[in-house]
Amino acid sequence: MVNSMHTPFILAPMAGCTDLPFRLLCKEYGADLCYSEMIDSHALVARQQDCLELLLTNTAEQPVIMQLYGSNPETMGEAAAILSAQPIAGIDINMGCPMEKIIQTGAGAALMKSPRLAEKIITSVCKKSTIPISVKIRSSWNQHLITAPEIARRAEGAGAQAIAIHARTLSDGFTGSIDHRVILQTMESVSIPVFANGDITSHEQGQALLKKLGCAGVMIGRAALGAPWIFSGTVNQQPSMAYRIKALLRHLELAETHLGPEPGLSKIRNHAWKYFRGTTTGPAIRRQIDATNTYSELRVYVHTLAERLLSA
Ligand SMILES: Cc1cc2nc3c(=O)[nH]c(=O)nc-3n(C[C@H](O)[C@H](O)[C@H](O)COP(=O)(O)O)c2cc1C
Fold it and tell me: Is 126 among the catalytic positions?
């Protein structure tokens, strides 16, 4: 159950990034709970192949939460019934996605301006699910009317067992600073666990936020990409090049084990260069990685780089 799990450090859902190999890697570094990429409720109900591939999970990564998006309460309920038959710890409802194509359908962060529809969706999902439900929200639609506390209250009333809040409005996008007051107001409005999300860039900062807010957990997104060691309380947060390449080698190993010998190039390439972000040679390594045309080429480059870095 989400309520009883030890969940202070959580990997945020990130489309195109938080697949099984990356979740497993974050788990190995100490993530207490991982969220999947968002899953289209319509595509899941239609059993579309590309969507079914997102359901890949295994026992080693538990507890994992898989995230659904959509704006139709019935379809979301049906999708939740399918997901709850999976060996996962919970289902999350996406009420924070700012992408235009999602907003236009009334899903994602569009739900932050429709508390009643949001509640209907949560009610339907909770009724059809046999596993716990969390809801990931933003502060609101825009700064004029903050809806997070109301939506969180409605979510709890409808049966949700946890809230994750990215404390920015939809119109903020990813700019401006996180509003800790809204997180506190949201925590005050419910008795279920609230996870704080947004702009956490180190393990220490996560610990400090847990202490400052007294929230049930901190959720980390972008800063975990290429730096899964953020979940470890003991690893130097600016590790050596040798440490970085070992983490990337492990990522490739997990990808090959779980996605097959030739995992999708663009996805892996997009992860790979991030392991060297902020280092002197990072830009040159990125150019080399971007220049690879097949997964095999990428693999050869990474292994050659590893030989160099590990013998230095
Ligand atoms: C590449 C990318 C993909 C994302 N995909 C999702 C998603 O599928 N579902 C979701 O709820 N949020 C998604 N988000 C938002 C993150 O979960 C998180 O709320 C946001 O990045 C703020 O946290 P951070 O500052 O720690 O990155 C995504 C963010 C990024 C950068």
Answer: no
